[in-house]
Specification:
- By secondary structure, this protein is an alpha+beta fold.
- It has five domains: 181 residues, Hypothetical protein af1432 (Orthogonal Bundle), CATH 1.10.3210.10; 139 residues, Beta Polymerase, domain 2 (2-Layer Sandwich); 126 residues, Ubiquitin-like (UB roll), CATH 3.10.20; 72 residues, no CATH class; 73 residues, ACT domain (Alpha-Beta Plaits), CATH 3.30.70.
- It has 26 helices and 21 strands.
- Helix 2 packs antiparallel against helix 3.
């Protein structure tokens, strides 16, 4: 293609306002790419031109179109930077980094997925350009060897097509899925294609009749456009597989799309449809009031027309329709040349996927991210009508965490369509779910087996990390008697409400240097700083210190050589130090060794240190400790 033809195409697609920049970009691309041939017999320049066309058809911004035309021109860095804004080179280099990814094992696959997410978060346009690049390659797939065709098609169905869906780019997703499906399963693809071809005349007749019936009941509603909505082949195949029905039983092959001027008109038309025709139970979905997580908006319903024809109807405005085809890319044209906050809202979802790598192993991150990115989705609703998108086979517990992390942490069950069910209950599309909570509930490791969503697992692991490796913040509420009966001489500066106990292995004494060690019993064991157990478990240490003010009873133990009057001497010394003694007793613990135990009420750390100093001077004292 020559420059004039290319610029003519650009003008036709609405990009005449950057014609000068497109001309410069074309010449740079021609100089760097034209001699290089591809397996399809065309040049890399031809490929880049087609990528730019795809981006223009998707209403991408000028920097994205220029970057699509110039991607792979890495040797022209200086020339590109001198002629275009900084976004263009940033996008080109971002796409180049993604193209280098090769996945040969789980570790590399996880790293590749992480890099895709990082690149996307850097700028969402990077992955959109890469999707356009993949789509053009897919259109030329027949020129590749069979092994490459299968590998690329599997990659597209597993990764790129679902990603296009998550970005709302429906038109691109549909074409990717159909080409990839035709490559992987040509027999089934042809079977569905033949059925659609053979039944096309009858189907078109039914669609025309349905359109006429809808027009007749909407005489006072302004309809901008009404048309049949074709089902694409891969979508039909998946529904057949999921529902276990034959091709001729797919009643929603008949689809109608109605465009109306404003949002209020969508609801007016919906009311008329349900007034004049019988609605199909559970098929009404209001994605205007509750948009899908990919920001798709429309009203879906299914009604029974004359002769028992079941027709699925989508009602939307022109802006919603353009977004449903182009997704985030279409938003640019509606916002006067910028993407507003839409990119930021989409990026917040992608950032949450990256958080998955903070908890768990590489394999767990890969599995969880793939589920949240690419698994089939269901839409369930809160009692207030808020939609929650979840991976298929999600449970009450997944839903609870989708509502809010604290709701998930306190969940004990739920009501699905009014019926109480346990946390492990699987949800179905369209379920109305109310989560039941209890303030004393908390996550358990077994919960990881009850959930599907990677984000849910990440939130549970996050809690368990704190709950199992760090002290429970409400531990005294769990064991109030222990807190009352035993004095707490130590506090954690990192976790001030945590319960601390003095370790028996080294018996630290007030005034000595100490460290806290998190235990499996979810409390802090306080050791001398040089204790071998503390040194061995350095990774689990937390900062602790002796309390300066103590207003609780403490247990004090003294071991000494057995002799007559020992208990009386120690008790007298403690009393002289100004302590109130609540209990005192003695017992033989070894041959010739007596342990005296006391329950005391101290005033401060200094008070205890003074008492210890006095008791050490009592005849026969061997050891003292606190508990």
């Amino acid at each position: 293609m020559n420059e004039d033809t290319f610029l003519q195409i650009c003008r036709a697609k609405g990009y005449a306002f950057i014609e000068n920049k497109l001309s410069i970009a074309f010449r740079i691309a021609k100089k760097n790419l034209e001699p290089k041939m591809r397996l399809a017999g065309d040049t890399y320049l031809d490929h880049n031109i087609r990528v730019a066309q795809i981006l223009m058809e998707s209403n991408l911004d000028p920097s994205s179109v220029l970057s699509g035309l110039l991607h792979s021109c890495l040797s022209a860095e200086a020339e590109i930077k001198s002629n275009f804004n900084e976004d263009v080179w940033m996008l080109i280099s971002g796409v180049a980094e993604l193209k280098q990814l090769k996945n040969k094992n789980k570790q590399l696959e996880a790293e590749a997925l992480r890099k895709v997410l990082l690149a996307t978060i850097k700028d969402l346009r990077i992955i959109i350009i890469q999707l356009a690049n993949k789509l053009d390659n897919l259109r030329q797939i027949s020129f590749l060897d069979k092994a490459s065709q299968l590998r690329i098609s599997e990659e597209v169905l597993a990764f790129y097509a679902p990603l296009a869906y998550r970005l709302g780019m429906e038109k691109m997703r549909v074409e990717m899925e159909n080409i990839a499906f035709a490559t992987l399963n040509p027999k089934k693809y042809q079977e569905i294609a033949n059925f659609l071809r053979d039944s096309e005349e009858e189907r078109n007749k039914k669609v025309a009749q349905a359109i006429e019936e809808i027009k007749q009941i909407a005489t006072d509603t302004k309809i901008l456009k009404i048309k049949g909505r074709p089902k694409h082949i891969y979508s039909i195949y998946r529904k057949m597989s999921k529902r276990g029905v034959s091709l001729d039983k797919q009643y929603d092959l008949l689809g109608i799309r109605v465009l109306v001027p404003e949002v209020k008109d969508c609801y007016i038309l919906l009311g008329k449809l349900h007034e004049h025709f019988t609605p199909v139970e559970s098929r009404l979905k209001d994605y205007i009031a509750n948009p899908k997580p990919n920001f798709y908006r429309s009203i879906h319903t299914a009604v029974i027309l004359s002769q028992n024809k079941i027709v699925e109807v989508q009602i939307r405005t022109p802006e919603m329709d353009e977004y449903s085809e182009g997704g985030v890319a279409a938003h640019w044209s509606y916002k006067g040349g910028n993407y507003g906050d839409l990119f930021e809202r989409k990026l917040s979802w992608l950032r949450s996927l990256l958080d998955l790598q903070k908890e768990g192993t590489t394999e767990e991150f890969l599995e969880s991210a793939k589920i949240d990115l690419f698994a089939d989705k269901i839409h369930c609703y809160t009692p207030k009508g808020e939609v929650k998108e979840l991976p298929e086979k999600s449970t009450i517990l997944d839903f609870a965490y989708a509502v809010h992390e604290e709701v998930g942490n306190k969940a004990i069950g739920g009501r699905v369509n009014g019926q109480f069910v346990p946390l492990k209950h699987p949800l179905n599309k369209g379920d109305v779910v109310e989560v039941v909570t209890n303030k004393n509930q908390h996550p358990r490791r077994s919960w990881l087996k009850l959930v599907v969503s990677g984000k849910t697992k990440q939130k549970i692991r996050k809690y368990l990390k704190v709950f199992e490796q760090l002290p429970v913040l409400h531990y005294r509420q769990l064991k109030p008697a222990m807190a009352e009966e035993q004095g707490i001489l130590v506090e954690s500066t990192e976790f001030p409400q945590a319960y601390c106990v003095l370790a028996k292995c080294c018996c630290p004494l007030p005034g000595e240097e100490i460290a806290g060690l998190v235990t499996k019993r979810r409390l802090i064991s306080v050791h001398k700083i040089e204790c071998k157990f503390a040194v061995k478990e350095e990774a689990r240490l937390v900062a602790v210190n002796w309390k300066e003010t103590i207003n609780q009873k403490i247990n004090y133990y003294v071991q000494a050589v057995e002799r007559s009057g020992l208990l009386a001497d120690v008790l007298h010394t403690i009393a002289q130090a100004g302590f109130e003694v609540k209990e005192a007793k003695a017992k033989l613990v070894d041959v010739g060794i007596v342990e005296c135990s006391f329950i005391l009420i101290p005033k401060s750390l200094a008070h205890i240190l003074e008492m210890m100093k006095r008791v050490r001077k009592v005849k026969g004292i061997k050891k003292m400790s606190f508990g």
